[in-house]
Design a protein that fits this description.
alpha+beta; Arc Repressor Mutant, subunit A; 2 domains; 3-stranded antiparallel beta sheet; about 60% helix; about 15% strand
Length: about 110
């Protein structure tokens, strides 16, 4: 059976700077919300709401350990973002190439 589609997409989830910071914090370790919230100037409830959006987009996974819930990064959904950005890289490369040719031609003048 296929997994249900996420409630939030990756683009919506990473649009917020706090959520991007959360992803970076959870990059290499699993943490409970009590520890995570100590890294942010907001309430634990606010951090939990951000974590819920990330979880709904599939970017963080939750695991119950005793009475606490621990969170960890799941980078798999970021591949969608990487593929989307890769398409537009050709425009950046074209522009940078044109700039390089222009600068070099001005230097030769």
């Amino acid at each position: 059976m296929a997994e249900p589609s996420p409630k939030h997409d990756v683009f919506q989830a990473i649009a917020d700077p706090t959520r991007r910071r959360l992803l970076r914090l959870l990059d290499d370790q699993e943490m409970p919300v009590t520890v995570i919230s100590g890294h942010f100037p907001m309430t634990r409830t606010a951090v939990s709401k951000h974590l819920r959006i990330l979880a709904d987009a599939g970017l963080v996974k939750e695991k119950k350990v005793g009475r606490e819930t621990r969170y960890r990064l799941d980078p798999e959904p970021l591949l969608e973002l990487k593929r989307w950005l890769a398409y537009y890289e050709r425009y950046w490369e074209n522009k940078l190439g044109a700039l390089k040719r222009y600068v070099e031609s001005e230097a030769d003048s």
